[in-house]
Design a protein that fits this description.
The chain contains 26 helices and 2 strands. It is mainly alpha-helical. A two-stranded antiparallel ribbon has the order 1-2. Strand 1 and strand 2 form a beta hairpin. The chain is globular.
Length: 495
């Protein structure tokens, strides 16, 4: 580290400000060296980029040491520099203090930065002051900056977990008021870094979800914060029960968005209560929000046991409703990703947080079974009649082939050509060809094989085995010769 610090010091006076900034940032992060003089010089640098780099470095370093015991010498130097606690025998190593610490030589320079008309510099200076214990002094300045320019919310949000609980709530509510979409993403920073559950943070997130402006499209960004706020890093039974109780309460009494977030929260936490709640929604006598009902159905498809999956697919097909029929057909095709994400009402992108489903790859023990899909009829495929989506057209073509209503693989070929990395597109194409058992289609298989060969080793072997054991049901001398070539050219054991 000493050698590293010496190397960095060679560049702190470089003529290029970006080089100076990088060198100073490296010095600050290397806590084993005395870099006080360089820090002060960096805060007075004539280039704003250098000043910002130094302030950002101070803030980040102070955050990392808020819970460190102040025993070892370099920790003492680091803590003194960050908080101004030199000579204070009561300094405990935590930045959470009832009053601001004494000024250090760099504190006035950070204040100058916080007062700068340059917004980025002002945020950097204020952030460093917050991290080093001067929250009360600069909180108002940060609020004024954000109110004047809400686009600063993503940058300022990084400070949230450095604030005390009251200041954090105050700042986050300001974010909600100014730009609720940015507030949703800022929720990632609400959690403290110590891994303990924080139910108060969860309440702030639910407050966000209750706002009528909140877009359910942003439900996913808040889930991680909610889960961690209830469970922390090492959850116990009481923590899990707290999450379950809160989520069930929102499912039963919350608005539509709260209910959607709560369902996803239970699924993300792998709580089987979510299936009961989803059934209740689908069996309700009242007409419910279509996005909520669709989410409930998709969670059952992705999260229920195999027997429940089959029942849900049959029910979805019987309804004749596109909202349930389309994901049911996707379930028959094992196209799980297309079930997880979909376009909801008003074009909003919605998602299910977790899936228990895994792609069912063909293998020696489980070769492709060309049985006709249960409960599906050609009539059900009318759901795709008006769609211009290549994925929908490919699904329709696939099932028309399996239902002996068509031999047209072109929609499947087009989807695979457009999305060569899409494993589902590849699998459906190969399965359709295997079902048709037509040697005239071997050239298409050859093209698929050519794209499998360059895959990374960890992916290549699995993909080629799936490919091989899918076409293993095909008959005739041409396909036998092709499979022999697959074995010889790939060198992969088919067992």
């Amino acid at each position: 580290r000493a050698a590293s610090a010496a190397g960095l010091r060679k560049f702190v006076g470089h003529t290029d400000p970006t080089v100076r900034a990088a060198a100073l940032a490296g010095l600050i992060q290397n806590a084993s060296n005395d870099s006080d003089a360089e820090i002060l010089a960096g805060l007075e640098d004539g280039d704003v980029r250098v000043r910002i780099a130094v302030a950002d470095g101070l803030a980040e370093r102070a955050k990392r040491t808020t819970t460190l015991p102040v025993r070892k010498p370099f920790y003492r130097r680091l803590f003194d520099l960050a908080t101004g606690s030199a000579g204070n025998p009561k300094a405990s190593g935590a930045l959470e203090q009832k009053s601001a610490p004494p000024d250090t030589p760099h504190t006035p320079l950070l204040r100058q930065m916080a007062a700068s008309p340059d917004e980025d510099e002002a945020v950097a200076g204020a952030a460093a002051l917050v991290a080093t214990g001067f929250t009360a002094e600069v909180l108002g300045r940060l609020e004024a900056l954000v109110e004047a320019k809400p686009s600063l919310i993503p940058k300022v949000s990084g400070l949230l977990n450095s604030l005390d609980a009251a200041s954090r709530a105050r700042m986050f509510r300001l974010f909600i008021k100014l730009d609720i979409d940015k507030a949703a993403y800022a929720s990632y920073s609400l959690r403290a870094n110590d891994g303990t559950p924080e139910p108060a943070v969860a309440e702030l997130v639910w407050e966000l979800c209750r706002d009528p402006r909140f877009n359910p499209e942003h439900g996913m960004p808040v889930l991680y914060t909610l889960e961690q706020a209830y469970l922390g890093h090492n959850p116990g039974a009481a923590d899990r029960e707290r999450l379950r109780t809160a989520a069930r309460d929102r499912c039963q009494h919350g608005n539509v968005v709260e209910r959607m977030v709560a369902l996803n929260l239970l699924a993300s936490a792998e709580d089987d209560d979510v299936l009961d709640l989803c059934r209740d929604i689908l069996n309700a006598d009242a007409v419910l929000d279509p996005d909520l009902s669709s989410l409930a159905f998709r969670i059952i498809l992705l999260y229920g046991r195999e027997s429940e999956l089959r029942r849900a697919i049959a029910w979805g097909l019987e309804t004749g409703d596109e909202e349930y029929g389309r994901p049911a057909i996707a379930g028959l095709a094992e196209a799980w990703d297309s079930i997880r994400t979909w376009e909801g009402r008003d074009g909003r992108r919605l998602a299910v947080s977790l899936s228990r489903r895994r792609d069912a790859k063909a293998s020696a023990a489980n070769p492709f079974d060309p049985a006709k899909p249960e409960h599906l009829t050609v009539g059900h495929l009318a759901l795709f009649a008006e769609s211009e989506s290549p994925a929908d057209r490919a699904l329709e073509a696939y099932f028309r082939i399996l239902l002996d209503d068509s031999m047209d693989i072109e929609p499947l070929v087009r989807l695979w050509e457009e999305q060569a990395d899409n494993e589902v597109a590849r699998r459906l194409l190969v399965r359709a060809i295997a079902y048709l058992d037509d040697p005239a289609l071997i050239p298409v298989l050859d093209r698929v094989l050519a794209r499998l060969k360059p895959l990374p080793e960890w992916e290549r072997e699995s993909a080629i085995k799936d490919f091989y054991w899918t076409i293993r049901i095909m008959n005739g001398p041409e396909i036998v010769a092709f499979r022999k070539r697959v074995r010889e050219e790939t060198g992969i054991s088919i067992r």
